Amino acid sequence: MKLAYSLIALLVGLSLSPIVSAQECAPPPITANSAVYNIFTPEQETILGELTYQRMQGDLRFIRDQQIDDYLNALAQKLIKHLPPTGLKFQFHVVDIPEANAFNTPGGYVFISRKLIGFANNEDELAGVIAHELGHATVRHSASDFSNYLKLILNVTQVTDRKDIAEKYNLWTLGSDAGKERLKSDPTLAAKAKTLGNKDDDYLLEVVDAFAGKTVGSVLLETGKGSFDIETAYSEGDWLVLRDSENRVLAYSIVDGELKHRFFGSYATINPKVNEVVVENYPGELTFYNLSSGEQVAK
């Protein structure tokens, strides 16, 4: 009986004791992935994140709803206050994509699909998804991935100010300093560029296998003295599909680097198993094309 009374007294004492000191403890330092290769400081990663976000605005459909934005930010802030300092300013956006998914990009940008929010059974499930993405951002996975891409493709091992980061991020033209260095390092690619006139406004695109850590193909793209820009690039199997600023989808073979087809449209995806590309010609209107012939299969 004395033991029972002692336990009760202990529990009562614990329930009445202040917990402020526990709440005020500083979050633990970031140790996960501390040895991972990353050339970006938090300030430089913020710039990289802004550049990535600017480009993504032309690639994704954003749900612009202040009430939803406020709700997500309020929910996220409950989690962020428990994170160690990162030097990043987190931002949250809802996007309209077919998948129930969430992902993050450099600089603390977190994107959640409308479908995922709709599938969440309760706020706790949504908070779990946000916490997962915050974990990636906190240990700076995206900045590390981009650091590896720069080193692999361009042999870039450091960045400096906004101008320098922007040049390396948009490093597609032959006239850029790193573009010229890339041609110097690859005589075959340089010879091909010479046949195109080696114009400064032409694009150089490298397709990288991120898992294998190697370049699997290169594409040189004539722009007609900068008459159009490349908005997005997407590869699958032996194909590279680009969307340009003239509302065209360009299909290139990664094997020989040659342009095979042009389609009118804004978005495209490849199914290599059936050798087809699906192009959104107009909002909600899809057309299926055979990649070998370029002919329409279905609509």
Largest sheet: 4 strands, antiparallel
Q: Determine the structural class based on helices, strands and strand pairing.
A: alpha+beta
CATH class of the domain at 36-170: Alpha Beta
Number of helices: 10
**Which regions are unreliable across 5 or more consecutive residues at pLDDT < 50?**
1-23
Describe it for me?
This protein is of the alpha+beta class. It has a domain at about 35-170: Zincin-like, CATH 3.30.2010. The protein is built from ten helices and 13 strands. Strands 6-7-8-9 form a four-stranded antiparallel β-sheet, with no helix packed on it. The protein has a four-stranded antiparallel β-sheet with strand order 10-11-12-13, with no helix packed on it. A three-stranded mixed β-sheet has the order 1-3-2. α3 packs across α8 (about 160-170) and α4 packs across α6. The protein starts with a helix and ends with a strand. Residues about 1-25 have low confidence and may be disordered.
Helices, strands, pairings?
Layout: H1 2-16, H2 20-23, H3 42-56, H4 66-80, E1 91-95, E2 102-105, E3 109-113, H5 114-119, H6 123-138, H7 141-154, H8 162-169, H9 177-185, H10 187-195, E4 203-209, E5 214-221, E6 230-236, E7 239-244, E8 248-253, E9 259-264, E10 267-271, E11 276-282, E12 285-290, E13 296-298
Parallel strand pairs: 1-3
Antiparallel strand pairs: 2-3, 4-5, 6-7, 7-8, 8-9, 10-11, 11-12, 12-13
Helix pairs in contact: 3-8, 4-6, 9-10
